[in-house]
């Protein structure tokens, strides 16, 4: 597979140091990941400044108004994995688009020291890259 397009919501997520480190680690692998900010945070200067900090081109930083606008942008951009701070939105993305929605919280995976969202992300990346990861398969069109 080509680069995996990863989008994320800033609201609440960016306050978490572990999440910031996770996104920064993705940014260090530009040959593998194309990272987008798609946020409905009402402080646009905040969204733009995080994009600048991460050196994400302005063409990959989007401020939207509502959940449906976010979903429409995810679809239009062909995002593969979207990291969301609200479970119902992550579920809606997962259930209504070809994108995988991952709910971001700090609850650890019971078998690994990492938060569950990182475990889920790694599983999806392995599946999208065709590596052995159990029964996970790419979403069908």
Spell out the helices and strands N to C: EHEHEHEHEH
Counting copies of identical and different chains, the oligomeric state is single chain
Terminal residue distance: 16 Å
Broad shape: globular
The order of strands across the largest sheet is 3-2-1-4-5
Assign a percent range to the helix content. Answer: 25-40%
Main sheet characteristics: 5 strands, parallel
The radius of gyration computed from the alpha-carbon positions, rounded to a whole number of angstroms, is 14 Å
Strand runs, count: 5
**Strand portion:** 15-25%
Helical segment count: 5
SS-derived structural category: alpha/beta
Uncertain runs = 132-141
Quick check: average pLDDT? 88
Explain the layout of strands and helices.
Blueprint: E1 4-8, H1 17-27, E2 33-39, H2 44-54, E3 61-63, H3 67-77, E4 81-84, H4 87-96, E5 100-103, H5 116-128
Parallel strand pairs: 1-2, 1-4, 2-3, 4-5
């Amino acid at each position: 597979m080509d680069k995996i397009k990863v989008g994320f919501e800033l609201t609440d997520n960016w306050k978490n140091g572990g999440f910031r480190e996770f996104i920064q680690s993705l940014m260090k692998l530009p040959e593998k990941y194309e990272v987008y900010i798609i946020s409905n945070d009402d402080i646009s200067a905040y969204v733009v400044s995080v994009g600048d900090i991460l050196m994400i081109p302005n063409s990959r930083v989007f401020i939207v108004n509502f959940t449906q606008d976010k979903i429409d942008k995810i679809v239009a951009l062909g995002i593969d994995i979207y990291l969301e701070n609200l479970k119902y939105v992550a579920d809606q993305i997962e259930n209504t688009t070809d994108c995988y929605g991952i709910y971001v919280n700090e609850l650890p995976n019971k078998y690994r020291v990492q938060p569950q969202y990182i475990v889920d992300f790694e599983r999806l990346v392995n599946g999208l890259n065709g590596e052995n990861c159990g029964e996970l398969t790419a979403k069908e069109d």
